Amino acid sequence: MDSEGASGVTVEFFGIARRRAGRTRIVVCQGLESTRLGDVLLAAAERLPELAGECLDGSRPQDGYLANVNARRFTVDPDTPLQAGDHVLLLAADAGG
Amino acid sequence: MRAVEAVVAIRRPVVCNWHMPTVPGYHGQYLRIDLSERTSHQVPWPDGVLRNFLGGAGLGAWVLRCETPDGVDPLSPESPLVFVFSPLVGSPLTTSAKFAVLAKSPLTGRINDSLSSSHFAISGKRTGCDAIVIVGAADGPTTLVVTPDGVRFESAETEWGLGSRETGQRVRDRLGGERAGFRVAAIGPAGERLVHFATISHDARHAGRGGLGAVMGSKRLKAIAVAGDRVVSFSDPGRLVEISRDISKRSLGPATAKYRELGTVDNLVTFNRLGSLPTRNFQAGVFAEASILSPESLEADRDRTRTSCAACTIGCEHIFPLAGAGQEDAGGVRMEYENLFALGPLCGVSEPRTVLAASALCDELGLDTISTGASIAFAMECAERGLVDIPGLRFGNGDALLAMIDDIGNRREWGDLLAEGTRAAADRIGGDSQSFAPHVKGLELPGYEPRALQAMALGFAVGTRGADHNRSGAYEVDFSPEVGRVNAGPETIGPVVRVEDEAVLMDSLILCKFLRGVFEDRVAGMAELLRPVTGWDVSPEELRETAGRIVTAKKAYNIAQGWTPAEDTLPRRFFEEPLGEGSRQGALLDPDQLAAQVRAYNLFRGWTAEGYVPEDRLVALGLA
Ligand code: SF4
Predict the structure, then answer these.
(1) Which atom of ligand 1 is nearest to the CA of B514?
(2) Most exposed among A60, B89, B281, B375, judged by the fewest C-beta atoms under 10 Å?
């Protein structure tokens, strides 16, 4: 948890998601104590339509993309529970280099 | 038929049918060149070998196992150097213009296969063979000129000492320029001086890992030029074109957008956020200045251009100009995640201009950027701990980094020791330096922090060529919801084997790994495209068995060259020093857990728990 995201969930963008979002992060679901990944992604999509078109598929990451909670757990499950202050990282599933 | 006799005499009884009809996609033979004798012969593939080993890394493992005497010194004339093409080379399939180079590595003493790309693969296959095996050593600097008419042995006296790029250009000019169509693979000064992580380069691309350039240099072979007009037939050209079109179309979709738009340099900021970016010789998993090396920052003051290997629709190569804005053009350098991490955060260097210059210098000298960066980072830590006295060599000192790269490439002073790799350097430096020398089996770790990526840690430990992300690919398991990337249990084993199998098939066919996202089921996809090439009714199940055979063949090679179970582990640092900061703070590898995973991996592969291959397994796979 950090002060910036304390009143919501921070979505951080990496790679193509960062390009499409045109920013590095966004805070959504403010005012909620708890929520789920699907609602966070829907809220991000509403504010960033270019991101939604390529990187999201409704309440899930698009094929080829992954979400990660607090830089620890990877998931694509829209029912993943989240708390205010959590960080969701949206990134390409292909990490090869 | 001296070559055939040599093959059979050196190793393994194989059932041979030397008059087999040629399989579509192949020429049905390999070219065996003896530099000492200045002779060459075509050798037909024994019956079944092509289907069992496919091409590239797989077929190379078969022929290397046949040709390598047990216990051979990798830099002796008897040690073979093998260039292998694949059945897909010359087809319209995107990213298929690739070749594999194999030899016993001077860095590890184990099998080493490195892949490279572009026109050398196409022209090499057009000489009329599926592989080129080189044994012996020349009397003086030599260029091999290979065409369908035979092999010429030309002096390379005037190229000796030059960089690989200039060598390639000079050889091409001498052989008739653009119109003659020769393509050239060459070594730089590091290969000539037998630096144990010297590369073989073609068209600014490198067969980079494991010191194959030193093997070439030990044969006094400066360059190989190939050209020809021998094309292979395909079993069902119409279907092949159809599949190729479909894959090309998908290769321009979202699965490869990252590679096209940003390149792999983008991994750096992602890995940093995940606490997985090796920093200051693996002392940390985050680098405070990582954002300075992000694609956006690199682009801010230099206009990036994009290029690609031959026959590739993706084009992941991002070239950054060496000169700053307003300066005279100084050429460009191809940046990827691995050279960026190794010459940047691993050495504590964040100045973009220095990292680009360091990478360009490695290319010019013919040095593997990962092993170079890791060797220097290791020396920096030794210097900071007072184990060595190397003035100025400290983390973050970009000038010292550049000077040491030059010293390694030219084997000067401390560079002469580091040119042997971190394992050998630690043996000489002593103290507890071996505990933080970042290698497995002698091969330096790539840019994946194993305490934060513990499936990758297993992949590093069991990798037949050492610590390696391209042959194992286990980071894919870490970067997935499949298992937890820290403290994962036995559920890790199946996925780690699966991605290793997929990688070995891609490396044998040879397709670019960056294409993997376009296949819904990679093995089924590869079976589908192999059918119209060869006419074999190959199923995904057969390909999975083929993958297991190739991995086991590499393992059997290593056992014959002296492998012991104690090699399948990681440096002590990763068991004793928890990660200090970042999202994986406190992460540590458990030695007992890793050892248990290694045993489980071995059993999964059908080997003994210690990792030896039982005779009945060798027989079942046709490897006895
Ligand atoms: S994706 Fe990149 S590395 Fe792969 S074949 Fe294309 S240009 Fe070469």
Answers:
(1) 1
(2) A60
Inter-chain touch A15–B270, beta carbons under 8 Å: yes
Instruction: Judge contact between B578 and B587, C-beta under 8 A.
Output: yes
How far away, in angstroms, is B97 Cα from ligand 1 center? 9
User: CA A19 from chain center: how many Å?
Assistant: 14
**The predicted structure's pLDDT at residue B582:** 85
A2 inside domain: no
Calculate what percentage of chain B has a pLDDT beyond 90: 89
Q: What is the H or E stretch that residue B103 is in?
A: strand B98-104
Q: A39-65 pLDDT, tens per residue?
A: 999 999 999 999 998 999 999 999 989
Q: Is the pTM of this model over 0.90?
A: yes
For the cut 60, the answer to whether the pLDDT of residue B587 exceeds it is yes
With beta carbons less than 8 A apart as the criterion, state whether B342 and B370 touch. Answer: yes
Domains of chain B: 17-226 (3.60.9.10), 242-435 (1.10.569.10), 454-569+590-620 (1.10.599.10)
Mean pLDDT of chain B: 94
A→B contacts (Cβ < 8 Å), by residue, are 12, 14-16, 19, 54, 62-64, 66, 68, 70-77, 89, 91-97
Residue of chain A minimizing CA distance to B267: A95
Task: Identify the CATH number of the domain in which residue A29 sits.
Answer: 3.10.20.30
Expressed as residue numbers, the domain containing A86 is 9-92
Q: Which residues of A touch B271 (CB under 8 A)?
A: 95
In a domain, A88, yes or no: yes
Q: B221 pairs with which residues across the strands?
A: B142
CA–CA min distance A44, chain B (Å): 19
pLDDT at B328: 53
Q: How many domains does chain A have?
A: 1
Residue B20 DSSP code: P
Listed range (A1-10, B114-123, B382-391) with the worst mean pLDDT: A1-10
* pLDDT for the residue A7: 85
User: Which of B273, B479, B513 is the closest to A93 by Cβ?
Assistant: B479
